[in-house]
Design a protein that fits this description.
The complex is a heterodimer. By secondary structure, chain A is α+β, with helices and mostly antiparallel strands. Chain A has 2 helices and 6 strands. Chain B has one domain: Ammonium transporter fold (Orthogonal Bundle), CATH 1.10.3430.10. Chain B has 17 helices and 2 strands. Classes of the chains: A alpha+beta, B mainly alpha.
């Protein structure tokens, strides 16, 4: 099992969700986050006072998938979240040791 | 940018054409003059309009100003800022009832040029059948009370984010009695500025220059906020500020058209010029900001609207629509430079630009009232109708107000500082006023 963690532009969330659902994935966790990469921040101006805002709002999606699904899931996220503009985000894949469904006690892939 | 430049050129050209038109004297309106000197008798039309105006002007402070200011501060100080407007409304109501109304609007005997008398202490002698002109005195007293409320509430914009609440309570009580009441008396209560011929239809001098100058003194006395110029002090929620500014705009019809204290042609013209000046000032601020900072901002257009409302306030019963267009344009541009370039150059921290918008807008409005006053509308000609002296008279009103408000506010701050201290501790300021002063937070 792998944890696929994707940081994407907020307005791309629904397209990504749809793409992952079409692969047959049954759930995901979404968090509103702030951060920056090469895009850096932006500048806001209020009555002439300029503020450099370093952390921009992004969405973090976390989804755990069976190892054989990882490439498909990553490709689906890239296809759905890509605009070609700077600031599209990143995807991290990390190994997962164990999964437990709390309600039934099922473990690992049958719990996904 | 070239397209924008063309548009601007068009706007300037339109102004020039209108200026040429302005040489034309306006049509005479003699109905007001004829109705003026009759025996005092209650007029139901006037009374109905003044009841309405009173409610409109109260709406300017709560929720208008509360939301306008509340939306512009940081999240940790929103409730404290809203509280300042609301508490000021309550405090000034009681102070006005006890003593300020009497000091502002009663005959002061030998001292009448400077301060009124104590005849209406605790509103003694004001019954349901007592008249003030053609309306019940109770309505006039409450109408004027709403002006006494909004004036000190405007000052809160200058010391936002760092004033102790206990200090605010003391400051508001003293300020209403010793600053607002005398200046209102000077202009409207039979005092020396009114006798001098200073034109201030709805309070450009009494309300806005007064509050704005007091605000500057407060900003200087309290000092800059921690992190001013380095930390991000972006507004919490500009939608609140837009709602607040819009309520101010609507309420201002009670402020300006209500200052006719009658339901007549003067009130109607005051309403029209208020609308025109406000929209023009909003556009002026928007366009100049578009040029200077590359984007027309929401905060910019609403700030311009408030600047226009302020500037047309003294002029509203005296100028014609074309005059109001000029006043609006001047206010939008002048207040933009005051709140951005001038504030930055001088370096004071007037948090929400009480000085930059209200004092500067008020001064522009007071002076231009002397320029654009039309005899056929308000009974007094201005510079354009061959009466340059009116501009000097206006200047005297401005200077008297600046001196009394500036010095008086400074003394009140010293007293307040000795009694309770005016500024919150560094820890409180950094963590936020809401949780520390009021025990509440916005989630």
């Amino acid at each position: 099992m792998k944890l696929v963690m994707a940081i994407i532009k907020p307005f791309k969330l629904d397209e990504v969700r749809q793409a992952l659902t079409e692969l047959g994935l049954q759930g995901m966790t979404v968090t509103e986050v702030k951060g920056y990469g090469r895009q850096k921040g932006h500048t806001e101006i209020y009555r002439g006072a300029e503020y450099a805002v370093n952390f921009l709002p992004k969405i973090k999606i976390e989804v755990v998938v069976p190892a054989k699904m990882v490439d498909k899931a990553v490709d689906a996220i890239v296809a759905a979240a890509k605009t070609g503009q700077i600031g599209d985000g990143k995807i991290f894949v990390v190994p997962v040791e164990q999964t437990v469904r709390i309600r039934t006690g099922e473990t690992n892939e049958s719990a996904l | 940018m070239t397209t924008l430049a063309k548009y601007l050129f068009g706007v300037v050209a339109a102004f020039v054409v209108l200026a040429l038109y302005h040489v034309h004297p306006a049509l005479a309106q003699d109905e007001a003059a004829a109705a003026a000197e009759e025996v005092a008798k209650l007029d139901t039309g006037d009374t109905a309009w003044m009841l309405t105006s009173t409610a409109l002007v109260l709406m300017m402070t709560i929720p208008g100003l509360a939301l306008f200011y509340g939306g512009m501060v940081r999240k940790k100080n929103v409730l404290a800022t809203v509280m300042q407007s609301f508490a000021t409304t309550c405090i000034v109501t009681v102070v006005w009832m006890v003593i300020s109304y009497s000091l502002a609007f009663q005959d002061g005997g030998a001292m009448n040029a400077y301060i009124g008398g104590m005849e209406r202490f605790l509103l003694h002698g004001m019954g349901s059948d007592t008249l003030s002109g053609t309306i019940p005195e109770s309505v006039f007293m409450t109408f004027q009370m709403t002006f006494a409320i909004i004036t000190p509430a405007l000052i809160c914009g200058a010391f936002a984010d760092r004033m102790k609440f206990s200090a605010l309570v003391i400051f508001m009580i003293l300020w209403s009695i010793f600053i607002y009441a005398p200046i209102a008396h000077w202009v409207w209560g039979g005092g020396f500025l009114g006798s001098l011929g200073v034109l201030d239809f709805a309070g450009g001098t009494v309300v806005h220059i007064n509050a704005g100058v007091a605000g500057l003194v407060c900003a200087l006395f309290l000092g800059k906020r921690i992190g001013y110029g380095t930390e991000n002090m972006a507004p919490y929620n500009l939608v609140y500020a837009v709602i607040g500014a819009s309520l101010l705009w609507v309420g201002w019809f009670g402020f300006n058209a209500g200052s006719a204290v009658a339901s007549n042609g003067s009130a109607g013209m005051a309403m029209a010029v208020t609308q025109i000046a406000t929209a023009t000032a909003a556009l002026a601020w928007m366009f100049i900001e578009w040029i200077v900072h590359k984007k027309p901002s929401v905060l910019g257009i609403i700030s311009g609207a408030v600047a226009g409302l302020v500037a047309i306030t003294p002029a509203s019963g005296f100028v014609d629509p074309v005059g109001s267009l000029w006043i609006g344009a001047a206010a939008g541009l002048g207040c933009f430079f005051a709140a951005t370039t001038m504030k930055k150059a001088i370096g004071y921290d007037d948090s929400l630009d009480a000085f930059g918008v209200h004092a500067i807008g008020g001064i522009i409005g007071a002076l231009l009232t002397g320029v654009f006053a039309v005899k056929a509308i308000g009974g007094t000609p201005g510079l354009l109708e061959g009466n340059p002296g009116q501009v000097l008279t206006q200047l005297e009103g401005i200077i008297a107000t600046i001196v009394w408000s500036g010095v008086g506010t400074f003394v009140i701050l010293i007293i307040t500082n000795i009694l309770v201290g005016v500024r919150v501790s560094q820890a409180v300021e950094i963590e936020g006023l809401d949780i520390n002063l009021h025990g509440e937070v916005i989630q």
